[in-house]
Amino acid sequence: MLSAESLSVIRHGRALLDNASMEVKPGSLHVILGPNGAGKTTLLKTLAGLIAADIGRVALEGKNIEEYSVSERSLTLAVLLQEQLLDFPFHVREVVSMGAYPIGAVFSQQNYLADKAMTALDIQHLADRDYTTLSGGEKQRTHLARLLVQISAKTAYVLLDEPLKAIDLKHQVAVMQQIRTITNQGKAVLLIVHDLSLAAQFADTITLMDSGRIVMTGTPAQVMQPDILSELFQTPIGFTEVLGQPLFFTRSTI
């Protein structure tokens, strides 16, 4: 299990995280929701060992995450951050294949894994394109394919910060289905999204955050209540069902 235990992260006198505790369990898709500046990304980065907590600890399989080497963490944790700093004219296939480095895949395996991941994310036709010429959504799907390549039998936790960013509606659903497949393989997935409807549709557990604090955690049925969400996001939010699927929407006050 991956857990945050009373985490506080303080920068320039401001608490980016304030006594935050949560657990990410195997076989569960755990979604974090909250307004901008709520501390969602800080929590994910701290759980990934990329930010050190000022108070509290992150426990990975019962051990402090700092006790693991970077290579050990890269085998156990697969992480996709919100911003990807890559501005070199690699071919898409080369970028996707980079996911094979942490798992030590040989060249023949790299090609197989890259082809499989590109097909899953519908970017196989972009394999020989210059990465820098892609649209924002195509770049995001390229990095998601790279993440799929990295995920191996040893990967226990997958952490994704806004993986749907810039992706069109058709491919958003495809990405969420891939994430659901990863979860069904027994891996623990932590996901930050802004789409309330997709969160309610796919999540097993949802955590709401605001001002660096965890407001509540529970099942979608417990957490995704219009009154709770309206207070959290400071805007009127309504709910209905369409073809048996949850649909959340903002209600105009004009």
Automatic annotation (TrEMBL):
Residues 2-236 form the ABC transporter domain. SUPFAM superfamilies: P-loop containing nucleoside triphosphate hydrolases. Keywords: ATP-binding, Nucleotide-binding, Translocase, Transport. It comes from the Bacteria. GO terms for molecular function: ATP binding; ATP hydrolysis activity. Part of the ABC transporter complex HmuTUV involved in hemin import. Responsible for energy coupling to the transport system. This is Iron complex transport system ATP-binding protein. It comes from Neptunomonas antarctica. The lineage of its organism: Bacteria, Pseudomonadati, Pseudomonadota, Gammaproteobacteria, Oceanospirillales.
